[in-house]
Amino acid sequence: QSVLTQPPSVSAAPRQRVTISCSGSSSNIVNNGVSWYQQLPGKAPKRLIYNDDRVPSGVSDRFSGSKSGSSASLAISGLQSEDEADYYCSAWDDRLNGPVFGGGTKLTVL
Amino acid sequence: QITLKESGPTLVKPTQTLTLTCSFSGFSLSTFGMGVGWIRQPPGKALQWLALIYWDDDVRYSPSLKTRLTIAKDTSTNQVVLTMTNMDPVDTATYFCAHSMTTGSFDYWGPGSLVTVSS
Question: Cα distance from B75 to chain A (closest Cα, Å)?
């Protein structure tokens, strides 16, 4: 069972906007930056967001992150078929003294 | 340009010790703020953080696996080695190494190395 809680799956049509939630606690999300990763089938994860809402150079601006209290969200606008992937949130956990991951969310583009 | 690559056995027997090497380039683990971590992913399951080592020899381990893990760095060869003792079939997974700054966020990942535990 993962420390951070994500919905197992989400779906939306092309060109729509979808959000993926990530729920944590005061030992992780509340006091530490959240990262989001995209994992295409058979590939290594790729970081999309860091420090809650920062987008690394080279990552599409269709991806955005936000945080409020003990929850964080990843939003993907203008959905494309190539966005079909698993998405993971992560944050440092002060109690466990290391990073923790969510259980992952599978995005289906209808 | 930062790159990382994992290497090690693809098959280990139960009770054996697994040794994985992460070879990297594009940064030095003697530079302030730099770190390398190990993360694994059982087939069809979520990512699980295992261990982290930083430029100043600070090491962190997943509490649930701490007694079985050892992480070490060799700054002269740009490698980080992870050992995991007493391997079990539930440890079958793809093992990734990744670059991290002090926040524990992983910005560059290796392609991963699938390790199967079976007799």
Answer: 22
